[in-house]
Structure formats: structure tokens, C-alpha cells
Amino acid sequence: MAISGDSGRVVAVRVRDGLSRADGLAWLLAAAIALGALMPADGHAASPDLCKIVGSAAVGQALHADIVRAEAPESEPGCEYSIKDTPGNSSTNHAIAMGGAMGGAPMDPAAAKALSAFGNAVLASGSAKEAKSARHPGEVPALAFSVSTGDAQDEMKTNRDLMGRVSPVTPVPNLGDDAFETSNSMLFVRKGNKFIRFIYTQCNCASNDVIALARQIVAGL
Whole-angstrom Cα distance, residue 182 to residue 188? Predict the structure, then answer.
């Protein structure tokens, strides 16, 4: 499908920006997960079903998606809210949402369709491999949060310094005792001695969609 004029320029800019951020986002995500894995076992917050703090319907409305599963992560207290999708398509939709959140020109349906097709083609190989190793094949986590207890102030400082090397970090007011977001894909919060990490790299959403949910979740901890 040929696209010209403003739509073509929008696609070109989104593709350029999306590809330039891809390596950085992957590095940020891997670093955040690695830091979480380094937390000692007795540093995890003991808790019941944290998915009950905010129900699937409210999460789905905020993220513009149908949540098909809400369950605790395999390794730590928290919750994963999943949707039916492929890793490649969900990542592309997230890139489009990121672009809009960063003040980009509204994308018309033709441009969005073209960018989605391009993203799926570029990510097809990796998406297929990731889908095969997924916890629930055919699903991806649109939003996941985890909670640990311990030296939360140190955790915030470490993550703020680390993430700031790759992407700007933006303070988020009125959320816990301290909070910041980065890349419209991750949100880090401290509440007392609790450290809460939100990851939303595979949803049709950006930080503005998640912050209100985060306030509800953090208030319930």
C-alpha cells in the first residue's frame, strides 16, 4: 500500500524514532529485570493476591485493551495483566502510543496500519521465538508490576541512575513517596520501604495511561 504526503512523513518519522529507541528500550527492560532478580529472597514483599487491588476491567479500560488473564508473576509478588496478541504486534502498538504521548502528530488510520505492518515484518522472527517461549502462548503482558521490600531508597537511586544513562527520567508527582517514569514504558515507585516497578512495553498505552492505575495500586499496598 502506497502512502504519500503527511501520512508518509508520519510513518517515516515513527519508524525512524521507533527503531532508534528499540535497542535502548530492550536494554532498559533487561536492566530493570536484572536488578529485580538481584533482590534477596527475603527482600520480597509477602502478600496475598495483589491482582485484586485493581481489577482486570479497570486495567483494560485504562490500557485500551481486553485483559484475558491477571496473575502473579512467576518469581516475585505483583501482578501481570495479559492480553491476546503477539509480541511483535503489541510492541508496535506500544511504539505508536509512545509517539503520540511524546507530542507527535496524530496518526491517521492508513499511516497506523502501514506502521503496524512494517513493525510486524521487522519483528516477525523475534516475535515468533518469543511467542513460543511465552508463559501463556498467544498472550502478552500488557502491564506487569512487582513489589519488593527492603532498602527502597537505594533501589530508587540505583534505577534512576541506571535508566538515566539511556533515556530521560521524569519525576511523577503525587505517587507514593518518590516516583519516576522513563521511555513511556516503565514506572518506578517507592512507598515507605516498598519498591514497586511497573513495566508496560507491550500495550497500546503510554505512561499517562498507567499513572492513574499506579496510584490506585500503590495506595492499596
Answer: 9
Which structural domain, as residue segments, surrounds residue 114? 5-219
pLDDT at residue 120, rounded to an integer:
52
Average pLDDT over the chain, rounded to whole? 75
Query: Which residues are within 8 A (CB) of 213 and not within 5 positions of it... i.e. 6 or more apart?
Result: 54, 58, 59, 62, 143
Under the banding of pLDDT at 50, 70 and 90, the label for residue 132 is: low
82 alpha carbon, distance to own chain's centre: 12
CB under 8 Å to 75, separation ≥6 — which residues?
A: 37
pLDDT in tens, 198-220: 999 888 888 889 999 999 999 99
Count of structural domains within the chain: 1
Rounded to 5 degrees, what are φ and ψ at 147?
Answer: -130, 135
Cα Rg, the chain, nearest whole Å: 17
Closest CA to 70 of 62, 61, 59: 59
Q: Give pTM, 2 decimals.
A: 0.69
Pairing of strands 139-149, 69-71: unpaired
